[in-house]
Amino acid sequence: MLQGCTAWVLDSVNCAPMNAPHASPADSAAKSSAKSPGNSPAAPPDVSPGAGISLVDIGLNLGHDSFDEDRAAVVARAQAAGVARMVITGASLPGTERALEVVRQWPETMRCTAGIHPHHATDLFEPGAEERLRALIQQPEIVAGGECGLDFFRNFSPQPIQIAAFEKQLEVCAEYQLPVFLHQRDAHPDFIKVLDRWLPQLPRAVVHCFTGTGDELQDYLDRDLYVGITGWICDERRGHHLRELVGRIPLHRLMLETDAPYLLPRDLPKTRLRHSGDRRNEPAYLPHILATVAHYRGETPETTAAGTTAAAQNFFGWP
Ligand SMILES: [Zn+2]
């Protein structure tokens, strides 16, 4: 089943544009220690488990069937790595129902969102679908509406239907005063146009898995949106531009996410994988993303961890 912002392959199809600026692939093996922040091609050192950090993975697809065999072990590894809380992305009606089942197994540790990804936008106009969404949104474990937004890269749903489904979900979120978890790919102008109609009535919104341009980022920051950064930034080819942009996001608007099982950080040391050739991403790898983000912001991982965790607690109203 299609879930999250991604499709069927774990590492190559996802919510980010394929036309992001590329850097030289020559530094793909770089694993040396941190240098000065900014343009260093070297991967920063990982934050080791037990370093006293407490992180929130604000977007992962823990209901995905690739976790069916070992979900409890995945959660235990994440907690041991300092990922204290996880917010599972609800990207369809059945996906949200599945996410709720998982959350209820770890009520202290997890919450989820309830929404319909633009890929599934047509589903919202099936008989009874809006009522089903409204019923889900009122569950106490739901801390945000979405994932919703626009995806004009794949156009799995027609664009006018995507816009209508996006608008309807923003309307419902405004009605229940829920923050919104947003997806945008290759649709920035229309995305902003729709969002601007609803933002005054919404408590908060995050553009998750941000991979866009500096101008797009500025549009989000001008609207005081939160921004979610994934392991895309760890890809020295596709994520190079993010390394220069990530420092522009105020710490109180920055949050971290793995998008697991998708978007395995490209530069993750092979020794961290469960077995060679393993392409499944896990929430336990969030500290690796933290280390990369902190490095390119010129902050200590502790500072970035504390700031992003506070931002997530504030965003989701989960103190
Ligand atoms: Zn997405």
Task: Report on this structure.
- The protein has a single domain (51-316), classed as Metal-dependent hydrolases (TIM Barrel, Alpha-Beta Barrel).
- The chain contains 9 helices and 8 strands.
- The protein has helices at residues 71-80, 93-105, 129-137, 159-176, 188-198, 214-222, 240-245, 286-297, 301-316, and strands spanning 55-60, 83-88, 110-114, 142-151, 180-185, 205-207, 226-229, 254-256.
- It has an 8-stranded parallel sheet.
- Helix 8 (286-297) packs across helix 9 (301-316).
- It is globular and about 50 Å long.
- The protein starts with 54 loop residues before the first strand and ends with a helix.
- Mean pLDDT is 88; it is low at 6-14 and 16-41.
- The chain binds zinc ion.
- Residues 5, 15, 147, 183, 208-209 line the site of zinc ion (ZN).
- The site of zinc ion (ZN) has 6 residues, from loops.
